[in-house]
Amino acid sequence: MSVRFRRTVTAIAATEWRALLRNQVALAAALLMLGLTLAAILVSHERVRAVNAERAGFQASADTQWQDQPDRHPHRVVHYGHYVFRPLSPLAFFDFGVDPFTGNTLFLEGHRQNSANFSDAAQSSVLLRFGQLTPAFVLQVLTPLLIVFLAFGSVARERERGQLRLQLTQGVRGGTLLAGKLAAHAAIALLLAAPAFVALGLIAALHGAVAAEALALLLAYVLYLLLWAVGAVLVSAMLPRARDALLVLVGAWIVTTILLPRVMPDLALAGTARPTRIETEVAIHERLKALGDSHNPDDPYFKHFKQRVLAQYGVSRVEDLPVNYGGLVMQEGERLTSELFAQFMQADYERQLAENAVVQRAALASPVIALRRMSTALAGTNLDSHARFLFEGEKYRYAFVQSLNRLHATAVKYENDRDQRVDRSHWDDTPRFGYAPEPFDAVAARHAWPALGLLGGWLLALCIAARPIARRLERTGK
């Protein structure tokens, strides 16, 4: 790259910046966007901080209530249950993802798998009516629109005024001219996103556990905004009039950022036979009846189970067992029901993945779909993160219920079973629920690298397209 080329590109970019600075409307819009991005960062960060503090407080209260239980029969404790709350990643402020629409609290009890409750959407009809202002929303939807309005006339307006032909006749090559325009608007695009990028850098510096996620997010949004800046300048160079370029660019913005992301989930839902919650509960109830009822002593399955237990211990009566038969029955019943719950949970999760796969097919036509998939995954607010919370909660529920059933079998005598209690010190032995997010490598392999590859591919394709567009400018002078 020659010194003359760099100087010419810099001069063209500086001229473009001066023209935009003289445009009071463009300057006001850019300042408004910077303020909006900063407000989104501050409001979203404060919301996530408050939510995490609230959930941590609720979790501590639930743990304290669990430990403060008096002496009780273990099976009473099984039905007493316990609450667990899902914490948010430090990056959740950047992109709320599905978190406002999914529950964040699980009530864990024996013989039953409860769904997550207390989502923001369920608790407020106003909160989500107009969407939520997050840095991701501003960068994905609003900033590209401003880039379009700033760049649509970068070349087309000079063509209309006759300035383009004059520059070409003075020896400015088409490629140099485009490079200057692209440099100017790429810098503006990155400047508009500067508050969000600074916030991601601070998160990476202050929270080392999510540093890789924050830097990957920063790279993805840089590529996405450059994609819009390059695309806007090239469309302006291709079309004869500025208003034509504006019409094409606004149409592209509507289709790629508004229409496709909204329509594709509906198409996916229509094409996937997913039962309603009531249908699922009815199916589970019917399967439970077929499995057997651990609370019914005359149930055929548990009659056979009784014979197996007696044969295993070499006795003829349950009274002669070295353990409490009632606790063994509760253990077996919990095992059967939990396996059934796991089957239905996995089936529902796979149906949701199938729906998401349909949506992701539109990512080739709408880069924002790929970006959102990556953004929510790295922020820990996507479907996978919610499902991980549910699966981890179910594993914890099964483990602590079975530990109480084992206590029932070993610490409570069979005679006068229901009238006995165990010491409250046993409640302290129950392990606390810990929700750990998925490692970066696993998330990146499924979500980040494909999205970065697609965004990089789009940007590379536009850069390749710039060469024939530059030649056409030189050849026709218009």
Radius of gyration: 30 Å
The main sheet orders its strands as 1-2-3
Strand content: under 5%
Structural class: mainly alpha
Count of β-strands: 3
Helical stretch tally: 17
What does this protein look like?
- Mean pLDDT is 89; it is low at 125-130.
- It contains 17 helices and three strands.
- It is elongated.
- A three-stranded antiparallel beta sheet has the order 1-2-3.
- It has helices at residues 3-22, 24-67, 74-80, 120-123, 135-151, 156-161, 163-169, 174-192, 194-206, 211-238, 242-271, 277-291, 300-313, 325-360, 367-379, 383-411, 440-476, and strands at 82-85, 105-109, 112-113.
- The longest helix is centred in the first third of the chain and has 44 residues, at 24-67.
- The chain is mostly helical and 478 residues long.
- The protein has one domain.
Salient structural properties:
single chain, 478 residues, mainly alpha, 3-stranded antiparallel beta sheet, 17 helices, 71% helix
Brief sketch in words of this structure:
By secondary structure, the protein is mainly alpha-helical.
Q: What is the element layout, followed by pairings?
A:
Elements: H1 3-22, H2 24-67, H3 74-80, E1 82-85, E2 105-109, E3 112-113, H4 120-123, H5 135-151, H6 156-161, H7 163-169, H8 174-192, H9 194-206, H10 211-238, H11 242-271, H12 277-291, H13 300-313, H14 325-360, H15 367-379, H16 383-411, H17 440-476
Antiparallel strand pairs: 1-2, 2-3
Helix pairs in contact: 1-8, 2-5, 2-9, 3-16, 5-8, 5-10, 5-11, 8-10, 8-17, 9-10, 10-11, 10-15, 10-17, 11-14, 12-14, 14-16, 15-17
